[in-house]
Design a protein that fits this description.
The complex is a heteropentamer, with 1 copy of chain A (337 residues), 2 copies of chain B (273 residues) and 2 copies of chain C (269 residues).
Chain A lengths: L11 E6 L6 H8 L2 H8 L3 E6 L3 H10 L4 E5 H9 L5 E10 L3 E6 L11 E4 L4 H13 L7 E5 L4 H6 L5 E5 L2 H6 L4 E6 L8 E7 H6 L1 H18 L4 H13 L4 H9 L1 E3 L3 H9 L1 H16 L14 E3 L5 E2 L5 E5 L2 H7 L4
Parallel strand pairs in A: 1-2, 1-3, 4-14, 6-7, 12-14
Antiparallel strand pairs in A: 3-10, 4-10, 4-11, 5-8, 5-9, 12-13
Helix pairs in contact in A: 1-9, 1-10, 2-9, 3-4, 4-13, 9-14, 10-11, 12-14
Chain B lengths: L10 H29 L9 H13 L9 H33 L1 H14 L8 H8 L3 H25 L3 H9 L4 H38 L5 H9 L4 H29 L10
Helix pairs in contact in B: 2-10, 3-4, 3-6, 3-8, 3-9, 5-6, 6-8, 8-9, 8-10, 9-10
Chain C lengths: L3 E10 L2 E11 L4 E6 L5 H8 L7 E6 L2 E2 L8 E4 L11 H13 L8 H18 L14 H13 L5 E5 L7 H18 L2 E5 L3 H7 L2 E7 L12 E8 L8 H12 L13
Parallel strand pairs in C: 3-8, 3-9, 6-7, 7-8
Antiparallel strand pairs in C: 1-2, 1-4, 4-5, 9-10
Classes of the chains: A alpha/beta (337), B mainly alpha (273), C alpha/beta (269).
Bound molecules: adenosine-5'-triphosphate (2 copies) and magnesium ion (2 copies).
Chain lengths: 337, 273, 269, 273, 269
């Protein structure tokens, strides 16, 4: 640690994950030896590290302490890619299908939020979701006040009298939605496929060490095949993941219900190849640019370049920093790992 | 007896008086909890005593089904280890630097300004850098405690060293003491009681830093558990954990105070604080 | 040749002149008794001899060389205020100087060596009458006991020059007698040079070979802080136990000399 | 000059020595930053001096395009206000409770245990309860500072009151002083210097709690900005903010120290710490 | 009737007996000089009279009633160690008792009242020779000056009983003379009852109407801590300035009496 991961042939790799419904399989894969098994198969070592603070894990990855890290498509664009680290979205694990939502107290509509406070983690996917919700109702963000509120305190914050509306994600969302008088106004179900949970790796490292990518993808889809099953093994896996994230099987299954998992690699490949992905990323980058998150040096949303599996690109192709890649998932789909 | 400053409670009165605030606090909690539960029986914010008992029983006396170990004790062990190492390092460093800065004009000129400045840097704001420098493992957690606590120790000890009567230093020199001997035989022994006080005053902040660091990168520890269940607002776990942390810290504090009263019985003045 | 020579010494604190134009030559093994009004600068003078403070003007030479800039083991001291180490027991206070001398690194004796040192120290404690409290901490000692302890401690390193600031003021006549004998025998054995501030003229005459009187030569009632004190009398006293008649008269005179500070004896508020 | 304890640097030497550690720290930063930027010119972790200058210029001297105000000054004002109120309340309460506990045996019996216990409760772990009691607004932020800092103040001051020589209290009583008079004329004035020291030692923790509270729910403030831009690792903003916080805290500390040295010139002993 | 009566008083610290079987009757306006070996318990006795400490046995009555359980303004004190308030300047130290008495709530004078008090205090400062340092803080005063300040401060409330612990030990003869006169004039004016510990027998005889000698009656060399001191002599002294011949002889005897603590005069280590 301490030095950026220099691209070269390596034997051992570190990836970071944090607690979230779509990333809990990494806990299972790491603890049950699935990752080790696949790493051994390719003659490498992979250390899977749990970081509780999501942003800190991305920061550490961006600073070079890890070769890979889980994050959303939006954060992948803003932090590592915006920070000049060429990154590849290796695995598209799922997209949020109701896992993020806007909740209000009482009988309000989106348009009624005008002039009110909305508590959310600023510059996060919640903020993005709010922006999309406001678009749908035709009002602008400047018509209301966004209060930056730490995710850990969101549930408690909603219980105080002065908070009227929050945007947050699961499991906080279901806790808040269960409050008496809470009303869910808008969720990621309304913008399917726009909030994507991915495993992002260092592009150079991946290019120099394809085995690293293969091992990760192999381990991931083996885990998927276990957890998707409804038999004892699948339940055991899911209850493991539930407990690891502080709840139980039922709680975890409830969270999975609002998550569109790509259990089969082919699903993920199809999703990545669709036109929709580039459209989504275009909306995302404009959102980021509007909020100054692409870096103050960014003269336009085109500043950071992206590539898509179909050969499509967005932004400055001389500064391509985020690559959506389906080669490895494709190998998994083809059973070639 | 007239004046308030001379009125001392008896042994029993002392215990009673000391217990009173705790009883009042407990009563206030129970009333608030009852009131909330009456409105919403599922309220998680101020759980009933029964929920606490259940949670404690589950965490402390039932083996974790996955690992077969007892969660509370695992967490406690992990946290205490980090705390112990962090505080030892901070204390050792604080003692050395505090004595140097308090006693030696050269060291004071060189380091007092930088310590005064560094003590004002909020460590939580530069976490990314700290994690890059110290990694994300145990070292980082211990270092966060060290970085958080040491500046206070250094400043407190150097201030207390500087208040040693000059006569003593002069006297020691006339008895032929070198600087090193003055440090070891005159200054250090008289600084130890203040060191213990500083350590006691640092306990609170040290736990704070421990919890913060465990909330960022850990897979066990008291702070980790609180962080983990906080997203479900599981106050039935959080509050016993907080109480347990408080109890642990208080016991350490109590032990240090008694150690100090015993070991440094040359000290004049009142005891028991 | 004189051991200590003081030339044109002066001390000022801000506008406040404490000492000025102090000149003095002291040979080895002289025993100077210093007397003077309260607050006239006697302790300050001793602090200078100790290098605890630097003079505002003039200089002090020891053995012909300028005085060391910091306190040294060659000059021992007993302060006016009790100055024993509160964290050491009585006997530990006494063996401390031995430990400091013999053990440069640890500054501490262990085992047999410590026992030997304690035995040595026990003798001295016996003489100053502190054996029964040898393991007590200073906070439990009476004022006089602390002062005796400070004296015993200062004698251990056998300094060339010994500075005593009202060392016997807090002692009863019997104990004081004993302490006089201890100091005198050590003085003769070790050929020490001693400066002793005292308010007891008889004591000064009895112990000293020389009497130094500090007083202000000039005095401006409008600005009492303008002028400092200096040595106004410097009397040799050769025989010590009985005062020669002319000195007896001098002593009487000094004793009676009205204090500068004396105001009219009007009724109190 | 022989012994180290007597060796004092001259005026110039003092400044030079004091500046040395800062120069070394700055040099270490520049080297590390250069090394990282050589590998990745876009690296955000240790930005170049130029990025700092840009960021400071943008935040402090250019109006924010969205609000039309100057971000840095808005944040500073908001934070200093919270800090000032929080520290005032904590200091006032700490003084009253510290003197009572240190001086009055009854108050000591009743409150010393509860203060010792409460000082060990990690405030950040019971935030949900604090929200319910104090809401999410300015009060909560100020209260977090108060809750975080007061126990230390109380304990430190009560310890220092307890070390006042008994003779003084006895003497005051023989001069006819009542308990109240002893408090106001003997104890309080002699405790003030220690109060200032305690306040100085609390500055670091107070900033920490301020930053934490601004991370919970805020729309402006230095801590808010740091946590906000942490979302995209904008160290070019974070580090100047941290430096600015440090500078502010250091200036407050400096002012307090000089105030104390001036106002309490009856105190014996060394100055300048 | 006697003002103060002490019955069978004893003080023990753990196994260490300091005082035992002390009995005493003192009438109003008596001036008791207390002498005794260093560490024998004189200061302890004063602390008991002050209610600073509680006796291990026996009792003290004032005016027939048991002594108040806490220090009161009726009993003033000058401690052996300087005990002025470090945070108050010289004059503030002196006006403090006036402020405490007159202003129950603030304990402080303002404006004209403060000026008046300061003028009153200035007289006293003049008499004890501290006018030129009236605005200095105690830390800059010499030992004797602090002691004089403590005396002036203790005299202000005009206590019924005044307890003095070696009050003049640190003063030069001239100043001491002045202080004697101040104390005596106040003693007569205010009909105070005074207890004064001193090591200067002549001073004791000169000022006192009665001399109390503290000493151990029993002494076990194997266990020096087993027995405490008590009052072994209780001599009335009616005329003060010149000693009657029989008392002179007594004084000589006391002066010569070997200290209990004196060991064999062997060479020092
Ligand atoms: N730091 C200081 N600042 C100002 N004045 C000081 C300081 N230290 C001492 N003095 C003054 O210097 C003078 C001499 O003090 P010193 O202690 O030498 O007197 P002394 O002769 O020893 O008196 P005593 O017999 O009462 O002990 C005093 O008037 C005192 O007020
Ligand atoms: N807290 C204590 N614990 C144990 N012993 C104590 C304590 N306080 C005093 N003593 C002992 O009590 C004895 C009497 O002390 P005190 O101060 O009364 O003596 P004194 O007669 O005033 O002596 P001096 O003339 O030297 O001032 C001493 O031997 C001392 O060691
Ligand atoms: Mg003096
Ligand atoms: Mg005494």
């Amino acid at each position: 640690p301490g030095q950026p991961a220099l691209a070269a042939k390596k034997e051992s790799f570190r990836v970071a994950w944090s607690i979230y419904v779509g990333w809990m399989p990494w806990a299972y894969a790491a603890e049950k030896g699935i990752v080790d098994k696949w790493a051994k198969k390719y003659g490498i070592e992979i250390e899977v590290v749990q970081i509780n603070d999501y942003i800190e894990s991305i920061n550490q990855y961006t600073a070079g302490a890890f070769d890979g890290c889980v994050m959303t498509n939006m954060d992948a664009l803003s932090i590592p890619a915006g920070g000049g680290l060429d990154s590849t979205a290796l695995i598209l694990g799922d997209f949020s299908n109701g896992n993020d939502g806007l909740v209000v107290k009482g009988d309000l509509g989106i348009a009624d939020l005008t002039g009110k406070n909305v508590n959310l983690v600023e510059l996060s996917v919640s903020h993005y979701l709010l922006a999309r919700a406001l678009d749908s109702a035709g009002i602008a963000e400047r018509d209301l006040t966004v209060v930056n509120t730490s995710d850990a305190d969101m549930v408690a914050a909603f219980k105080t009298a002065e908070v009227e509306a929050v945007v947050t994600w699961n499991p906080l969302l279901s806790e808040i939605a269960a409050e008496p008088g809470a009303k869910v106004l808008y969720t990621s179900e309304d913008i399917p496929g726009e909030i994507i949970d991915m495993m992002v790796v260092n592009t150079e490292t991946l290019a120099d060490n394809p085995d690293f990518g293969k091992a990760l993808v192999g381990a991931w889809y083996e885990t998927m095949s276990i957890m998707m099953k409804d038999d004892a093994e699948g339940k055991a896996a899911r209850s493991f993941m539930g407990e690891k994230s502080g709840t139980d099987l039922a709680g975890y299954d409830a969270q999975l219900a609002t998550t569109k998992m790509f259990y089969e690699p082919a699903e993920a490949v199809d999703f990545a190849k669709s036109e929709k992905l580039a459209e989504t990323m275009d909306v995302v980058r404009n959102f980021l640019f509007d909020h100054g998150i692409l870096g103050e040096g960014a003269p336009s949303p085109d500043y950071v370049g992206m590539t898509f599996p179909g050969g499509g690109t967005l932004g400055d192709s001389g500064n391509t920093k985020l690559r959506f890649d389906v080669d490895y998932m494709g190998m998994a789909a083809a059973g070639a790992l | 007896m007239g004046r308030l400053i001379n009125r001392r409670p008896g042994r029993a009165g002392q215990v009673l008086l000391g217990a009173l605030p705790f009883i009042l606090l407990a009563a206030a909690y129970l009333m608030a909890s009852d009131a909330r539960l009456a409105v919403n029986p599922n309220d998680k914010l101020l759980p009933s005593v029964q929920s606490f008992v259940d949670a404690i029983n589950r965490l402390a006396f039932q083996p974790d089904p996955r690992k077969g170990t007892y969660i509370l004790w695992d967490d406690t062990l992990a946290s205490l280890l980090r705390l112990g190492i962090g505080l030892s390092v901070a204390t050792g460093f604080g003692l050395v630097a505090g004595v140097a800065i308090g006693l030696l004009p050269l060291a004071r000129s060189a380091f007092a300004p930088v310590v005064a400045v560094l003590s004002m840097v909020p460590p939580l704001a530069i976490l990314p850098i700290l994690f890059i420098v110290f990694g994300l493992g145990e070292v980082a957690k211990v270092m966060l405690i060290v970085i958080g606590v040491t500046p206070f120790m250094v400043r407190d000890l150097s201030m207390s060293v500087a208040t040693l009567p000059r006569e003593q230093l002069v006297k020691a020199q006339t008895l032929g003491a070198s600087t090193w001997q003055i440090v070891t035989r005159v200054v250090l022994p008289q600084t130890l009681p203040r060191l213990v006080s500083a350590l006691r005053l640092s306990l609170g902040p040290a736990w704070l830093f421990l919890i913060s660091s465990e909330a960022i990168a850990a897979t066990e520890g008291l702070g980790y558990r609180i962080f983990l269940v906080r997203r479900y607002l599981a106050m039935d776990v959080i509050l016993p954990y907080v109480a347990w942390i408080t109890l642990l810290a208080f016991m350490i504090d109590w032990a240090l105070r008694h150690l100090s009263d015993r070991a440094f019985d040359w000290q004049p003045g009142e005891r028991g604080l | 040749m004189s051991l200590i020579s003081v030339r044109n010494l002066s001390v000022r604190y801000g506008d406040f002149t404490v000492l000025e134009r102090v000149n003095l030559e002291v040979a080895q093994q002289e025993f100077c008794s210093i007397v003077g009004a309260s607050g006239c600068g006697k302790s300050t003078f001793l602090r200078l001899l100790l290098s605890e403070e630097q003079p505002s003007g003039g200089e002090i030479r020891i053995d012909g060389a300028p005085i060391a800039k910091e306190p040294q083991a060659d000059r021992g001291v007993v302060f006016q205020r009790y100055s024993v180490f509160p964290h050491l027991s009585v006997i530990e206070n006494v063996i401390l100087p031995m430990e400091l001398e013999a053990s440069a690194f640890c500054g501490r004796f262990f085992g047999a060596r410590r026992r030997r040192a304690k035995e040595e120290a026990a003798h001295l404690l016996e003489r100053v009458g502190l054996s029964h409290v040898r393991d007590a901490y200073p906070k439990t000692l009476s004022g006089g006991m602390q002062q005796r302890l400070a004296i015993a401690q200062a004698l251990i390193p056998k300094p060339k020059v010994l500075l005593l600031d009202e060392p016997f003021g807090a002692l009863d006549p019997g104990t004081r007698q004993t302490m006089h004998e201890i100091i005198l025998s050590l003085w003769e054995e070790e050929k020490m040079t001693i400066f002793m501030v005292t308010h007891d003229l008889k004591e000064g005459f009895k112990l000293g070979t020389r009497l130094l009187v500090f007083d202000k030569l000039r005095w401006d009632p409008q600005a009492p802080e303008a002028y400092g004190a200096t040595i106004t009398y410097d009397l040799p006293i050769d025989r010590r136990d009985v005062l020669p008649p002319e000195l007896e008269a001098k002593a009487e005179a000094l004793n009676k000399e009205p204090s500068r500070n004396e105001g009219p004896l009007n009724a109190l508020p």
